[in-house]
């Protein structure tokens, strides 16, 4: 009886961790990643405008 309860709790924890892992990975792929412009590129583009 005790072994069955321990196994069920263990399986529930493993499924919970796997679900949390899948959720975090999915949100990471949905995130819009952006890259800031390099400061030297900003200076070059502003000097070309003048």
Automatic annotation (TrEMBL):
The chain crosses the membrane at residues 6-25. InterPro entries: YtzI-like (IPR047753). The keyword Membrane applies. Keywords: Membrane, Transmembrane, Transmembrane helix. It comes from the Bacteria. This is YtzI protein. It comes from Salimicrobium humidisoli.
